Prior knowledge:
The protein is mainly α. It is 57% helix and 9% strand. The chain has 8 helices and 4 strands, in the order αβαααβαβααβα. Strands 1-2 form a two-stranded parallel sheet. A two-stranded parallel ribbon has the order 3-4. The longest helix has 19 residues, at 114-132. It is globular. The protein starts with a helix and ends in a 6-residue tail after the last helix.
Amino acid sequence: MGSGKSTVGGLLAERLGVPYRDTDADIVAAQGREISDIFVDEGEPYFRELERQAVAAAVAEHTGVLALGGGAVLDEGTRGLLAGLPVAYLSMDVEEAVRRVGLGAARPLLAVNPRRQWRELMDARRPLYTEVARVVVATDDRTPEEVAQAVLDALELKDV
C-alpha cells in the first residue's frame, strides 16, 4: 500500500514501450465500485477471490507491466503464477507509508490503529513478497522516476 506501484508501473511501461495494467483497477472496473466498498459490503474473502481471478486473467492475457494489489501474494496459486516472471517488490517502511497515504479510511485493512496494522500486514506479507520477487527495490526517499530506473537496472531491462 502506497509503495508507488501504480505510478512506477506506468513509468516502467512507458520506458519499456509496453502497455500497463493494474489488477486493482480491473476489479474496480468489473465491479463498478471501489475496493473499500467491496470489503465493507462483501468481506475480504469475497474480494480475495475477485483478486485471484483478476491476477490469473491478467497474467494470462497481458504482455506488459502489471501491478498487483498488495494482498495478491496471499494466494498460493497466484504466487505460483508469478514464479519465474520478472517481479519487483517495491518496499518501504511505515513512516514512508504514513507520509504517502496517511494510512486513512480508504484502506479497509488499516481502519483501527493503522501503524500497528500496517506493520503486522507487512510482517505477514514481506516473506511472500520476497518469495515471488526477483528483485527488491526500496522506495523510501526516492522519486517515482528514481524507483522506475532502479527497477529497470535491477531487472536488467532496457528502456526504449
